[in-house]
Amino acid sequence: MKYDLIIIRYGEISTKGRNRGKFVDRLKRAIKHALSGHRAIKIEAGRDRMQILLNGEDSKVVTGKLKNVFGVQSLSPAIRSERDIDSIKSAAHSLMESVYEEGKTFKITAKRSDKTFELDTDGINQMFGAFILKNFPGLKVNVKNPDINLLIEVRKEAVYLSCVTIPGAGGLPLGTGGKAMLMISGGIDSPVAGFMMMKRGVELEAVHFHSPPFTSERAKQKVIDLVEKLSEVSGEILLHIVPFTELQQTIKNQIPENYSMTATRRFMLRITDAIREKHGGLAIVTGENLGQVASQTLESMYAINEVTNTPVLRPLLTMDKTEIIKMAEEIGTFETSILPYEDCCTIFVPSSPKTKPKKDKVIHYESFVDFEPIVERAIEGTETIRVTPGFGDRNQGLDDLF
Ligand code: ATP
Ligand code: MG
Predict the structure, then answer these.
(1) Atom 26 in ligand 1: which residue has the minimum CA distance?
(2) What domains can you pick out in the chain, each with its CATH number?
């Protein structure tokens, strides 16, 4: 079947009242980006839906790309017909031919936004129902739950026909939700947390703490690869790599062992917050999950979170690990996440971290050391990389750069 266009429905965007123009604009930009390889395509953005004119591009390939764009509720490949009955019949015929199977059921759903058209919706339903039955004797009508729903939409400029509705990615268009800093480890959880935020329209920058020589170049490369995967959604993500060795060693030497993990997390959060402030972010995102490990009890979160007033968002907080793994597989980060290179926390992690640390105690322990200059050096030494899809391929053989 050769389709003329793809109809995109907005779903949630259409509830956004006066902001709608901005939302539609952002969605158009995201779609343009997703389809940048398809030069013939034209996008018509209306208030209630968008039309992607294919101009000969392959509808299957284009649909496959559009399905992943946040803010798209559903999409339908469609054909465009002139407004005379004969043309509409011929379009309906070729569309039904492409999905026809003996014994299938169908119905016609007519929509008429242009009331000057010669038939009303009942008239369209009747005329085209009879036409299809006559031409496809193997089909039966079923108005409640048909196999094929032939949509005939009469608009001022033309008539659009479609018979398949594909669910989109949902969510909100990227960039409509402000910017947040994703704390990314090399693990399974944080990339999933980042993905979920992007799905709600939030633009991300990523922050990673790296402790050479205790953590290897490969551990760092793994995080770059994960960010690269996430950047497929947005086109690019800034990744800030913070040198954390001096701080971790100082914590190891100066803070009682069972509080070193709590202190480590507090410094990570402080530094991330400082980078956030420099780059105009509004929140910090982590892959934390309630009760998963010692640092993720409510008591721990309370003691760690005390260092900042910035919202710390934890989209995975109440999810089960099996659900998180399933999502990681779906978004394509799981394989990379389970590579065995350790990160800075696994190496310095004490044998028995406190699961119920006390805020006052950790503040007391930290007070014996002047951490400020060490924190400053970590922030100053931060290296920022602009990660885009295909980044790894382009940089192969340039390992000494990192
Ligand atoms: P993940 O699978 O994301 O590593 P986790 O279940 O292993 O999470 P932790 O290691 O306790 O949990 O880390 C909790 C969160 O702290 C991570 O999801 C991430 O947001 C942040 N984090 C941990 N290590 C780092 C790091 N080296 N750099 C930046 N953020 C980190
Ligand atoms: Mg981890």
Answers:
(1) 185
(2) 5-167 (3.30.2130.30), 179-399 (3.40.50.620)
